[in-house]
Design goal:
Layout: E1 9-11, E2 17-19, E3 22-24, H1 33-41, E4 47-49, H2 57-67, E5 75-80, H3 87-101, E6 106-111, H4 123-140, E7 143-149, H5 153-162, E8 169-173, H6 181-189, E9 193-197, H7 209-218, H8 222-232, E10 236-237, H9 244-251, H10 259-276
Parallel strand pairs: 3-4, 4-5, 5-6, 6-7, 7-8, 8-9, 9-10
Antiparallel strand pairs: 1-2
């Protein structure tokens, strides 16, 4: 991990630097133009995560233009929805995402999920054909890194059987209540960077006693504690918010000291007890 400068980055297997903290977007009210511009222009965010499925790629183009941050200083990630899997469909959808985002290249392009359309008879072959298209995009220079989202160990094992290029990133839900150790270990062993969405568990654990106690002791907010926990585990973290004050709050974690994290990591044992009981 490179902690130099204002943007902390993780070095992917191919040498590409990816910010460890970014802004997530989604459908169902998960996009706010003003908040994205604020995040990029005033808060120093450089990683923006989106997907065709979210329906906001074209809106992000406008926000990127308005914020004034040069394209080369941004790290844009988007994802391919399963209904676009397949050699021809993937290429068409990928071109559409680039056009909507207003960019010649994507920094990280991912398969959104291992699921395939129910009408598909050979799902493994469809995933393989699609992955080979992502490898082609990388070879052609249209992407800087390729990855997957929501892949379990068994899905990754299948992919590793046929891929020429291993995924650089696997994006999954990650927080103290969803801490897939086996998957995390597998990714580490295979040099696949883990990226975590929903670090705040959609707000459902912000009032849990051990989290609130650590936040109080360290004079931080529960959200900052949870985000720092993910970062501390070397997981790229993409909290999302449509409120500017939350966008600012969520990014005030990178320069924190580690002393309070030692206490928090011990308290996580109690969190796990709550989960199991």
């Amino acid at each position: 991990m490179d902690w130099s400068g204002s943007c902390v980055t993780v070095r992917l297997r191919n040498g590409v630097g990816m910010p460890i903290l970014g802004l997530g977007t989604s459908h169902s009210g998960g996009y706010s133009h003003d908040s994205v511009v604020y995040a990029l222009k005033d808060c120093g965010y450089r990683l923006i995560d989106t997907a065709k499925r979210y329906g906001c790629e074209d809106k992000l183009q406008s926000a990127i233009k308005e914020c004034g941050v040069p394209r080369e200083r941004l790290f844009l990630t988007t994802k391919l929805w399963p209904t676009d899997y397949g050699t021809v469909s993937a290429r068409k959808a990928f071109k559409g995402s680039r056009q909507k985002l207003g960019t010649d290249y994507i920094d990280l392009f991912m398969l959104h999920a291992p699921n395939c359309p129910s009408i598909c008879e050979d799902k493994r072959q469809l995933r393989e054909d699609t992955w080979r298209q992502l490898e082609t995009f990388l070879d052609e220079g249209f992407v800087r890194a390729i990855g997957v989202s929501n892949f379990s160990v068994c899905h990754l094992e299948e992919l590793l059987d046929y891929c020429a290029i291993k995924p650089h990133v696997n994006q999954v839900e990650f927080h103290p209540y969803q801490n897939p150790k086996q998957l995390h270990d597998f990714c580490l062993e295979n040099d696949i960077q883990l990226e975590g969405y929903c670090p705040l568990a959609k707000g459902t654990i912000l009032k849990e006693k051990p989290i609130v106690e650590i936040a109080t002791r360290s004079e931080k907010t529960p959200a900052q504690i949870l985000i720092r926990w993910s970062v501390q585990n070397n997981v790229i973290t993409i909290p999302k918010s449509t409120k500017p004050n939350r966008v600012w709050e969520n990014c005030q974690v990178q320069l924190h000291g580690l002393s309070y994290m030692k206490i928090f990591l011990k308290s996580i044992r109690f969190v796990r007890f709550l989960i199991l009981h």
